[in-house]
Amino acid sequence: MKGEATASGSNNNNNNNNNNNMMSNGGGPPAQGEEGAASGQQPQQPPAPTAVTPDMLYKLSKKIAQLTKVIYSLNTRNDDLEQDLEAVRLGYEEKLQLCQQQLHVASQNLGVNGAPQPMTNGNANNG
Predict the structure, then answer these.
(1) pTM of structure
(2) What is the secondary structure of the chain as a DSSP string?
(3) Are 10 and 48 in contact (CB under 8 A)?
(4) Across the 127 residues of the chain, what is the mean pLDDT of every consecutive 10-residue run?
(5) Residue 101 · residue 109 · CB < 8 Å
(6) I want to staple 30 with a disulfide (CB 3.0 to 4.6 A). Which of 21, 37, 69, 122 is the partner?
């Protein structure tokens, strides 16, 4: 309770300082860098640090462990997706090479003037 009273007391002082700054600046919030220099007031002191209780330390440790698991999971998922993407890319490159080979063979069969070459295996229909 004693720490709460001290913290709320310093917050009241900070609120009063903020209100004074707002009035001296025409009613708006203080502009960045104007808090102490432009109004002639001393810069505000940060509130006094609070003591870390074992319960708070436990909760912080749990939260750090939880966030570490999330980061690990995201990194693992990212690695897996990169591997899947690489496999798909390689598959499409192989299909593209196969299509290029088929196009090359088909263009060789057409000949110079675009007419199909006669088949040499004797199955051509001579009508």
Answers:
(1) 0.40
(2) -HHHHHHHHHHHHHHHHHHHHHHHTTTSPPPTT-TTTTT-PPPPPPPPPPPPPHHHHHHHHHHHHHHHHHHHHHHHHHHHHHHHHHHHHHHHHHHHHHHHHHHHHHHHHH-SSSPPPPPSSS-----
(3) yes
(4) 44 47 48 53 79 92 97 95 96 96 90 58 53
(5) no
(6) 21
